[in-house]
């Protein structure tokens, strides 16, 4: 890996934690400089596509940082699910993963999809689009798992895969939000019981 690539990776990795914890508007270029130990020129030199303006470079870093954070979470979830063959057990493993990581998140600050969706909203179209892409990918992965389960005779035919995927994601994210807001695992325990029941109802 070239030195420039290593520097860019350092910036993105450090920025991912900053943006996920403090939000886009709560993270300054000075914060990124402090976290990386780089000068403004050292940071700007690795991010030019966003334009020469401070806002353009910051947004480019934020987008790259969000993508890094999402990949980090996806990688950890995959470690848990790829060793499981049964589709029902795969879906349950996702619930267990998030329950275990609510207060020990893969990326400091919690779920990057939830945090960035709230933070970006309509004020940052580029970030908002990346969040939508991440949710769509997650949605398709759930549909894929359910489809494989139907083919394997583990899940009932006729299940509305699209509806189930939406409900799983929405319920998971809602449970995470309330648990972190109240600083208590109990709201997510309530949520996880509902989710596990939903998953069990898919069984043949």
Biggest sheet details: none
Round the Cα radius of gyration to an integer and report it. 19 Å
| Proportion of residues in extended strands | under 5%
End-to-end CA span? 49 Å
Helix-strand category: mainly alpha
Name the shape in a single word: elongated
Describe the structure.
This protein has 204 residues and is mostly helical. It is built from nine helices and no strands. The chain has helices at 3-22, 29-36, 40-44, 54-81, 87-101, 112-120, 125-151, 161-182, 186-200. It is elongated.
What distinguishing features does this structure have?
mainly alpha, 73% helix, 204 residues, 9 helices
Brief overview, please?
The chain is an all-alpha fold and 204 residues long. The protein contains 9 helices and no strands.
Please describe the topology of this protein.
Elements: H1 3-22, H2 29-36, H3 40-44, H4 54-81, H5 87-101, H6 112-120, H7 125-151, H8 161-182, H9 186-200
């Amino acid at each position: 890996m070239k030195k420039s690539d290593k520097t860019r990776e350092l910036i993105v990795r450090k920025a991912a934690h900053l943006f996920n914890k403090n939000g886009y508007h709560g993270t300054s270029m000075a914060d990124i400089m402090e976290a990386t130990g780089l000068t403004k020129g050292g940071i700007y030199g690795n991010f030019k596509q966003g334009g020469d303006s401070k806002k353009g470079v910051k947004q480019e870093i934020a987008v790259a940082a969000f993508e890094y954070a999402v990949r980090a979470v996806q990688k950890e979830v995959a470690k848990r699910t790829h060793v499981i063959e049964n589709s029902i057990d795969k879906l349950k493993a996702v619930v267990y993963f998030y329950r275990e990581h609510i207060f020990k998140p893969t990326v400091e600050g919690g779920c990057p999809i939830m945090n960035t969706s709230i933070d970006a909203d309509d004020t940052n179209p580029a970030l908002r689009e990346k969040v939508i892409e991440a949710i769509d990918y997650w949605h398709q992965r759930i549909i894929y798992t359910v489809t494989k389960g139907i083919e394997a005779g583990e899940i009932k035919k006729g299940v509305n895969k699209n509806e189930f995927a939406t409900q799983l994601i929405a319920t998971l994210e809602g449970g995470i939000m309330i648990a972190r807001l109240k600083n208590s695992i109990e709201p997510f325990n309530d949520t996880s019981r509902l989710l596990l029941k939903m998953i069990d109802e898919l069984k043949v």
